[in-house]
Amino acid sequence: MSRVVIDVHAHFTPPEWIQGMRRTGAVHGCHIEEDASGCLSLRVGDGRPAALQPFLSDLPARVSAMRARGLDRQVLSPPMTIVTYQLEGVHGHAVSRLFNETNAEAARSDPGLIPVATIPMQSSRAAVEELRYAVDVLGIRMVEIGTHINGVNLDDEAFRPFFECAADMGVLVQLHPHRVAAAERLGRYYMNNLVGNPMDTAIAAASLILGGVMERYPSLNICLVHGGGALPWLLGRVIHGHGSVDAARVVPGSPETYFRRFYFDTILHDPRMLAFLHQLAGEDRLLLGTDYPYDMGETDPLGLLERAGLGASDAVRGGNAAKLLGPNPDTTP
Predict the structure, then answer these.
(1) What is the spatial distance between Cα 266 and Cα 324, in angstroms, rounded to a whole number?
(2) 56, CA 20 to 30 Å: which among 9, 11, 15, 150?
């Protein structure tokens, strides 16, 4: 079995991407702004600026934290605050291409780093083109997309070419919440993250199930972050509705069949919840994650596995991820 420990959920902003955006971002409707204290932010069009936190770009600190937490490899996924779905397709494509190229280059600095691509999902043509470029030219095996694209659920026909291409190429598609539903009710107590993120993941995953995407593309690999969000706890309700309500009876198989095709990261912060997810989804569908370097991240990922009774599972520690992302699951870097 695999001895490698792989973190499939972590975020990174390449410093070279920031530099490139400072030079050319304005052409694509993006502006890197700097305040009096030197702090940088990204403004897309007329939107609110999003801070470019320095800790997201600090590779030496990241590698040190990986070693301290017993991680051999870690993905470099974009923070959703810099994903530019609101741009026109040609501009979103250019911004995505810059990120993917600089991210792939940054990952070459350490054999434990795994680049993840961002995809301009607002354009079907650009999404497929960038996915193929990321895989065929940059050698990337994982992409991250939002739980919706400008308010449109992922089962929309516009996204079918992307999912078909992702299934054909065998890449891992990680869904990450952003601009969550009911945000106007979640402004206090950090509920936009605590409640909004897991609910938005549930909406996205249920759309893929009931909208027939999982049925149409049986080889599609989808990872749901934060342990699948709220979906595991709603599965019984979705199954019941599928069997009892005409509006939900839209796919031939049971929702549980499609649910068991998802992958789930382990970021649940509670061994009881992780043990339940293990029972529900199975050992071969769990992928270790940390959400580094955010405040809602898991700082003791291997300890959480131990407390959930999964400490000896080489599959969860990294074997499952290695089969999806490479290299050979029987080796460590």
Answers:
(1) 16
(2) 150
Q: Is the pLDDT of residue 165 over 90?
A: yes
Containing 34, the helix (H) or strand (E) segment is: strand 30-34
Strand-pair partners of 142: 172
Architecture of the domain delimited by 6-14+54-325: Alpha-Beta Barrel (3.20)
Element (H, E) at 33: strand 30-34
Q: How far apart are CA 180 and CA 195, in angstroms?
A: 9
**pLDDT bracket for residue 3 (50, 70, 90):** confident
CA atoms 106, 107, 109, 110: torsion sign: positive
CA gap 59, 122 in Å, rounded: 30
Structure token pair of residue 235: 């599965």
Residue 257: helix, strand or coil by DSSP?
A: helix
The token pair that represents 34 in the structure block: 């700097």
Find the distance separating the first CA and the last CA of the chain, reported in whole Å: 15
Using DSSP bridges, classify how beta strands 30-34 and 6-7 pair: parallel, antiparallel or unpaired: unpaired
Tell how strand 263-265 and strand 286-287 pair up: parallel
Both tokens of residue 254? 């049971």
pLDDT in tens, 177-202: 999 999 999 999 999 999 999 999 99
Q: CA 156 → CA 108, 152, 210, distances in Å?
A: 36, 7, 11
- The tokens 């897309």 sit on which residue? 44
For 144, phi and psi rounded to 5 degrees? -120, 130
Task: List the beta bridge partners of residue 43.
Answer: 31
Q: Where are the domains of the chain?
A: 6-14+54-325
pLDDT at position 327 is 60
Average pLDDT over residues 143-170: 98
Question: What gap in Å lies between CA 206 and CA 175, rounded to an integer?
Answer: 12
Collect all residues with Cβ–Cβ distance below 8 Å to 244 and sequence separation of at least 6. Answer: none
